[in-house]
Amino acid sequence: MNIELVLFGAFALLTLLSAGLVIFAKSAISSAMSLVATFFFLAGIYVLLWAHTVAVLQVLVYAGAIMVLFLFVIMLLNLGEETSAGPRLTLSRILGGGAAAGLLVVLVMAIWRIPAPTTTFTGAQAVASGFGTLPAIGEVIYTQWLLPFEAVSLLLLVAMVGAVVVAKSRI
Length: 171
Fold this sequence. Notes:
Number of strands: 0
Number of helices: 6
Helix content: over 70%
Distance between the termini: 59 Å
Structural class: mainly alpha
Order of helices and strands: HHHHHH
């Protein structure tokens, strides 16, 4: 059996498990730490796909800088452990479960309709010589994807300012 296939399956499974912990964690800090684990497992998948630059950027930018920002906002908002009397079945939970089930059905149907590959991909022969290098990534980001890149930076700034405004109104 191919070791890359085994590693890819392990990273994919661990990514799904840690992403599930992000959703179902009891505290916001546990959820954030599970998100850090998800980012590291995704970086492992990027390494297996020979995208080392993207893997390093995943760890530095998302697991480093963005998660520090998230944890800062969580601590600024003073989100502690919530105590609940027990699980309650509310309309929002029913609608959320229905939406998740519908998304799962659509995802399974989309995967089912993907045709089987007719050729084998070895990886090394189909990649251009400058693919994945920092100059190539910088050229694509600052020419073809400049507007979405700037929109994401503005979205993060607005989210941070909004969190500060919400925290200041509680004090």
